[in-house]
Amino acid sequence: MEALTRFHWDVPYSSLTGFATILQLYMAVFILSPVSTESDTLSYNKKGRNLTIQSSQLVCSYPGPEGPPGQPGALGAPGIMGRMGPPGKDGPDGKDGEKGEKGERGDAGRPGNPGKLGPKGRLGVVGKAGPRGLKGVRGARGLAGVSGVKGDPGDAGDTGAMGGCSCGSRARSAFSVAVTKSYPKERTPIRFNRILMNEGGHYNASSGKFVCAFPGIYYFTYDINLANKHLAIGLVHNGQYKIKTFDANTGNNDVASGSTILRLKRDDQVWLQIFYSEQNGLFFDPYWTDSLFTGFLIYADQDFETEEQKADEGSR
Predict the structure, then answer these.
(1) Disulfide-capable partner of 194 in 159, 160, 178, 308 (CB 3.0 to 4.6 Å)?
(2) Contact 296, 175 (CB under 8 A)
(3) How far lies 23's CA from each of 58, 60, 105, 285, 287, in Å?
(4) Least confident segment among 32-41, 85-94, 240-249, 287-296
(5) Is the pTM of this model over 0.70?
């Protein structure tokens, strides 16, 4: 190869970058030109200072084959931790997991504080009578009590011999009446306002009471139809119950009945009424059956008949 060609360039030296550029140009010339052995000079001037490079010191040739890679260098010092990057986007929701097994029952908690006392409930329906219990042992005889009030008259004795009577048609009293309304009010006289018979006019349909006009022995009876409710009905004489009847509702129409004989004085009153709350199952159905209240005089007192006889004789 020929000797390196001589070059002498005066280029301002402004920076390391400019020097590198010139060096690259110089090497390119040697690659494209025949190699010269002669010495050339490359000079730079920076503020009056010259930097001279002999071309003989720069020998360029065509690149040879690539050498084997060198050994890896030593691991450098770790760099400074960079800034925290922005948060990433939320990923898609995962699939629902399988249903877990039922856990064991936990321990019972502490009892809560007692609640406030609720309002008093309504009186329940009277239940059916239970079976009769065994007879108990007779107890010791108690102390004599205080004398009580005079009791009701006893049962009538045997009928005596027929006496004379000139009462004629005066001592007659009989009635038979029916209701026209269901479920009457409790503890008040039931008004039977449909009159079937009222001999003497001694039954008052407005008050529901029979008023005695002739002292004597009377017979009273009732037949009451009930439905949808229980029935607790009683026959009252001057405010005192003489007989009571209770009939439970069985889901069908039923009849409660009762009868008795009473000795009445003048102006005594007799009527029927419900004696227990919400047990007023008396039912009126004009196409099915009637509820009746009936009473009549069996015979008048002898004293009354005698007085009436004297009164009749005096008026003649």
Answers:
(1) 178
(2) yes
(3) 10, 12, 88, 134, 136
(4) 32-41
(5) no
